[in-house]
Amino acid sequence: MMKLMRTIGAAVAIGMLLAALPGCAKKEGPAEQAGKAVDNAVEKTGNQVEKAGENIQDAAKGDKK
Hints:
- This protein is mainly alpha-helical.
- The chain is built from two helices and no strands.
């Protein structure tokens, strides 16, 4: 009986902790927002450079024919 009570008590405690976690989440600060903006800009630039490289390769293949 005691083992069952401990198990139930532990389950209730874990459930309460899990329910409280979303309330602890902090909102993004200005530095984190700026970092994400930089990440997005770098990713977009990388995609554009890759696309330009593919266009150059395609153009070079066309000149060889």
